[in-house]
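ARCHIVE CARD
CATEGORY: sequence design from structure
SOURCE FIELD: tokenized fold
FIELD CONTENT:
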């Protein structure tokens, strides 16, 4: 499996087996983020959704969540 250097923690580790989500963000996470940081984000995401009352089924809310994810994980998304 390919090695990646995680954009959040800076460790060089094996890439997650599959992109954890679809689309360009899933691709970015897959190539830039380690499994540990991804699970940290998943915990954070639950708190953010509750805190802001976001509805991930709603495109505007989902976009806001993606932006927060991008910031949290230090992602480069084209
Ligand atoms: Zn990491």
């Amino acid at each position: 499996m390919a090695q990646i250097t995680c954009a959040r923690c800076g460790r060089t580790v094996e890439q997650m087996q599959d992109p954890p989500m679809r689309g360009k963000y899933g691709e970015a996470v897959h190539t830039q983020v380690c499994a540990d940081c991804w699970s940290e984000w998943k915990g954070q995401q639950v708190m953010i959704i509750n805190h802001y009352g976001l509805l991930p089924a709603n495109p505007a809310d989902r976009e806001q969540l993606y932006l927060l994810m991008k910031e949290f994980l230090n992602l480069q998304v084209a």
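CARD ANNOTATION: Helices lie at 23-32, 35-52, 59-73. Residues 6, 8-9, 11, 33-34, 36-37 surround zinc ion (CB under 6 Å).
SHELF: design records, drawer C
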